[in-house]
Each structure stands twice: as C-alpha cells, then as structure tokens.
C-alpha cells in the first residue's frame, strides 16, 4: 500500500452568526441531511488520507465549549480556533493555527456542507501544481446591470463568468502571503482567492458542483435537503 504524506491543512470557516436565516441557532450547527452542517464538512475532509489537520474556526462564544457532536471526529486531526469579526479574520486565525508540515491549505465554508469528494480532489490537485484553485460553476443566467432605480443599464456577457464556491486550495506560502499583505493594507475580500488575485498570484477555477451551494437564508435549508436526497 502506498504511503500518503499528510501535508494538507483544512480551515473550515464556521465563525459567523448566520443572522440572515432568522433562526436563533447558529446555522453551522443546525441539522441537515442527517447531521449538523459543520459535521458534514469535518467528516468529509477527514475521509482523506492526505489531511493532517482540520481547523474549525468557531465563534468566540462557542470555541471554548464546542458542541459535543464535533468530537465524533478524529481528535488527533481536529483543532478548534477562535473566529474573528469578519470572515477574513476567521480565516487568518485558522491559518495561524496550522502546524508545521502543512504544505497545502484548503479553505472551506461550513455553510456549504455537501462539498463532494471529486471537487475536493480537483482543487487540491491544482494547488499541488503551485497555484490557487477555486471550485466554481459557469454562470448560466442572463445578467443585467441596473442603476439605483432598478432600471437596466446593460446586459452583461456571461461567456467568461463563473460563480465561485468553496473549497478553495492554495500552496501554503501563497495564501499566507496573501493574507499577511491584505491585513497590512487593511484590505478585505469576499473570498480567499481574491486576496491572491490582488497580488497577481495565479489562481484557476475547477468545476464545482450544485451540491456546493451555500446556505444563506432559511429557504436554502429545504433546497439543500432536496439536493442531498437526490445525491444519495
């Protein structure tokens, strides 16, 4: 049997409050498709033999006393980190907690609990080639740019547009450099790849999956539950 080097570190961002769902319960702890959202992601990444550590970045209110179901995982490969005020702060905290020996970093949003193994394979394979990789889907809808009144200004070509998802994977030195530079400049972004892009560092897209949809509003739970049933 071939020995696999455990050189992948995973940062799962679960530090948000999820206020847009309208529920008092943190959305990353709510159950979907048979288990809590966060547990889906942790167990998915721990299925991989090349994963050295999974860092769960939790809200400060929960980092010291994580939910007990989280400890169903491989505790030797589990670390809990403290979330920050913004998503980027949470990712940065997770990065600083990665141990020596991690060469490839995967960042994933807990709000995307059904990331499939094939997509994870693709982003990690690209990161091993020395550049960043983003799971994404091509835009299929017609896009309209509008003004402040809602009046259409123009139709935007969708030919080269993709919808970014997570997981996103990077060589460790690339993502650490991107975050260090962004923090020094006071720059934030909605995803990790954007911080690499601003430095001119190479990032590619790989085919994602509809299973990688993000739970943002209450209605998304039903949609994701339906996707999970169809994927079984």
Briefly summarize what is shown:
With 232 residues, this protein is an alpha/beta fold. It has helices at 37-46, 60-63, 87-96, 117-128, 172-185, 192-197, 218-231, and strands at residues 8-13, 31-32, 35-36, 51-58, 78-82, 104-109, 132-138, 143-146, 152-156, 162-171, 203-207.
What are its keywords?
232 residues; Spore Coat Polysaccharide Biosynthesis Protein SpsA, Chain A; 7 helices; two-stranded antiparallel sheet; alpha/beta; seven-stranded mixed beta sheet
Detailed description of the structure:
With 232 residues, the protein is of the alpha/beta class. It has a single domain, classed as Spore Coat Polysaccharide Biosynthesis Protein SpsA, Chain A (Alpha-Beta Complex). It is built from seven helices and eleven strands. It has helices at residues 37-46, 60-63, 87-96, 117-128, 172-185, 192-197, 218-231, and strands at residues 8-13, 31-32, 35-36, 51-58, 78-82, 104-109, 132-138, 143-146, 152-156, 162-171, 203-207. The strands form three sheets. It has a seven-stranded mixed beta sheet, sandwiched between helices. A hairpin with a 5-residue loop joins strand 8 (143-146) and strand 9 (152-156).
